[in-house]
Amino acid sequence: MDIKFENLKKEIAEMKNLFLPDYANPFVLRTDASYTGIGAVLYQIGEDGEHRPIKWASKKLTPTETRYVISEREMLAIYWGLKRFEYELRGGKFKLETDHKALLEI
């Protein structure tokens, strides 16, 4: 699997607490895709600079989705993450993070 995806999974596994959202501050949505699944984490940056995870989710790709090229899988992860956390993100400011360079220009 992709090293960055594995690092994201490790980071999520090491998180000890989930935090309540602070709607006065912007959110960060980080997404990633691998050959078999996609994932997203919604967090905020605390006053101490720490990442404060609010929610995370992952999904196994369907056989059809596994045949997508990597750019399509990464875009699917973004779309899915936006839909998954729509309630928290709607109407507020947020930053989207992806490691896929081709999508950074969009």
From TrEMBL:
GO MF annotations in UniProt: catalytic activity
Keywords from the named record: Multifunctional enzyme
InterPro entries named in the record: DNA/RNA_pol_sf, Retrovirus_Pol_polyprotein, RT_RNaseH_2
Pfam families from the UniProt entry: RT_RNaseH_2
SUPFAM superfamilies per UniProt: DNA/RNA polymerases (SSF56672)
Residue span, Reverse transcriptase/retrotransposon-derived protein RNase H-like domain: 4-95
Protein known as: Putative krab-a domain-containing protein
